[in-house]
Each structure stands twice: as C-alpha cells, then as structure tokens.
Amino acid sequence: MTNGGEVVHGYPHLDTARAAITALYQRLSPEGIRSYAPSVAPADVAFSDLDDLHLGTQRVAHALVQQLRLPDARMIVSFREMDQAASVELAAGPEYFIELNNRFRTHRRDIGAALAHEITHVLLHRLGLSFPGTRDNEILTDTATTYLGAGWLLLDAYREDRDSSQKLGYLTPEEFGYVLAKRAMVFDEDPRIWFTSPQGYTSYTKGRAQALRDEQQPPLTTAGWTGRHRYAKDRRYALDHLGGDQPGGGHTGGGRPGGPAADPPGDPSAPYAFERQQDGLRVSFPCPTCLQRIRVPVRGRVRARCGLCRTVLDCDT
What we know:
By secondary structure, the protein is α+β, with helices and mostly antiparallel strands. About 40% of the residues lie in helices and about 15% in strands. The protein has a four-stranded antiparallel sheet with strand order 7-8-9-10. It has a three-stranded antiparallel sheet with strand order 1-6-5.
C-alpha cells in the first residue's frame, strides 16, 4: 500500500502480468474464465459512512466471495495497526481470517479493494496457482483479481494530488488499466462508468491504449502500416538467413518450435520471432487475448486459432 509516498507509473511488471493472464487460462480454461462474467457491480461493494463497519465489511466480503466463485468460503474480517493494507491467513478453510489496516475504519469506500486482493489469494490457494517469489506472486494476485472481475476496485482506490497519494496493490495504475482493458475486450464491458477516482479513470485509458496495441501487432492483419513495413523487412531478413518457402497462402492452427530463431534486425523488441521448421519458415507471436505464443507458417494470409483460449486470428505472415 502506497500511502502518501511516491506512486510508481508505467509498465515495469508487464511481462509478469501477461504471464499471469496466460496462467489463468491454463488453469481455468476459456470456459472457466468466462464464468467470471460480469464484473462485481459497484452497488454490491458500495460502503457508506453510515453503514455499520463490521456488518458492511461482511456484506462486501460476501459479494466478493460470490464474484470469485468461492461459495463455501467464509471470511472473518478484523482491523488492526499494520504496515500493509491487509493480510489473509491461508488454511484449509472453510473459514479464512482477513486483517485490514486500521486506516480502512475511516476510508471505508476502499475496503472492497483491499478485500478483493486478499480473497483472490484464497482463490489462488485453492486452485494451487502461484508464481515463485513474493513479488511475482503478488502481481499474479493483482492480475487475477482484475481479470476475474473484482480488480477494478483496486484501480479505483488509486488517488493522487499535490499533497497526498494512495494506491493499493503491486501493479502500477497503468498496469491495472492494461489488465482491466484486457478483460473488458473479452467480456465486452466498459469499466469507465464505474470509476469514482479521476486518476483511476486516466490510468485505465492509458492501460487500454497499451492493450489495444497488442491487437495491432504484426503478423495480425489489424497491424498498421508502420508495423507491416517493419515486419516485411524482418521477414526478408529471416528468409535470407534461415531459408524457407516464399509467402503463398494457406490456413493453419499453429505449429511447434523446431529450429533456430532469427532476431529481427531492425527492432529487437518486436513481439514476433521467426523459426525454421521442417516444413519451412514459421513466425511466433503472442495471442492478443491470452498472451500464449502462437506459431504459424510464413505463407501470406493465414487464419490461426490459439490452442489455449481458442481465439481465431487473421494473420498476414
């Protein structure tokens, strides 16, 4: 929890957040992911200063347990002085003990955000899903909270002005916006109407722009002229150095790695890579939905289906 200190911005954890989205699809399946629709409604987690602190907290916790599909999990919440925003005792259940920072006694509208992160810890514990190391595991938790429909609360809890700041979670505000936008594209939601924090709204729009760039990278046919021009140069380089058939045409569902990769000469950060296969040159790139890498032949226009999330992608390889 950042309380009055400097808030980190940008995308320093983006690779880990993307890996977390892939891990969610691998563990839950596309059908399991879609069972988390819709997102938790603002009315279900609203907390008025007139509400009883403990009864209101239990009500919000119950709504989040339902959102995260934990029907037999009972959350017992208490408040105490602590450095972090909250903590949860992970055990076999069915009761879980959550402690919230005492500051939430007077910052009640953010109780839902703190609870969402801790209850997601319970979900991931039950799923047996974790990343090595505390930092990456917390990023996984933030990402899962957001992608499964409760994390917009964490972004809405971000507020900053000239004299003070508050941010919950390990992702930056823009990274929260990115993951939230990724979810919005899959579930056809518009979370912008839920924000009460102007800074949260702005961070979402920035993250959404980053997420849209994932949908506009070659070899996808939605790529812009600059990306297509860069891709053509990199493909020519790969054909000269790795060999392979000239572009022609065809359809594919992806391939498996089996040869050396050619680093693009112009842009080492390009999201795609070329590989020589027994049947010719292939290009690999991340699926814009689940971020798992897909491999397709370099044959011009092809249609690829992601083997993980089953998204069908039109490509010009």
